[in-house]
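Internal ticket #5521
Category: modeling
Description: The requester needs a full-assembly model to guide mutagenesis choices. All entity lines are attached below as received. Residue total reported by intake: 190.
Assigned to: D.W.
Attached entities:
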Amino acid sequence: MAPRKDGPTKETMNRGAWTQEEDQKLAQCIQIHGAKKWKTVANNSGLNRCGKSCRLRWLNYLRPNIKRGNISDEEEDLIIRLHKLLGNRWSLIAGRLPGRTDNEIKNYWNSHLCKKASHIEEKPETSTAQETIAQDNVVGDNAMLENKDSISGSLDSDVIFNVNEFLDFPTEEPYVFDWVNKFLEIETNN
DNA sequence: AACAGCCACAACCGCCTTAGT
DNA sequence: GACTAAGGCGGTTGTGGCTGT
């Protein structure tokens, strides 16, 4: 590692909850520099925050089209199913839920659904074939993701499906639940 | 009213990946 | 190809608010 340039250090960096004023400054700076160059944004915003912190604040709270709170039953169900399929890949799961962030889903999972899901696990009679399929595919998830440019199937499962269909659906509202329905159809057709 | 315990959520930390030189 | 900085992600922690005693 090269020696660090002078600048705000961990000790001098502003930390903790964001104020309205900071949010405004950040939003203005992102308008100018874009929501990508976080180092530049952090340096030019006048905020004594690191790029990571700015990024997180923008992605989770200031970004347009963010939905806050009130996760619907449908969304909850979708999260549970996606989690079965993808595991703790929060950003991927969030990508299937328009307006929701990975942090929000992660928090929601840890505080609400974790117990709920484990409770469901304890009742094997309620688990369905599609859940079994999902479990199988979680195992091969990494490999599948690496090959997501090609049509691939699960190695150990009888079920063959197109990874692109699972990961590259449009995230506009009506399509999201179609995606789940499509997923469920696999089980129905078996 | 005061306190303790619990819960939800915002933010930070550390690791890994990617892009640039 | 090696190295560095920055971005991205998931895990974890800190804290404020709520509820029960």
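Resolution: model delivered.
Comment from assignee: Chain A has two domains: 20-62, 73-189.
Ticket closed.
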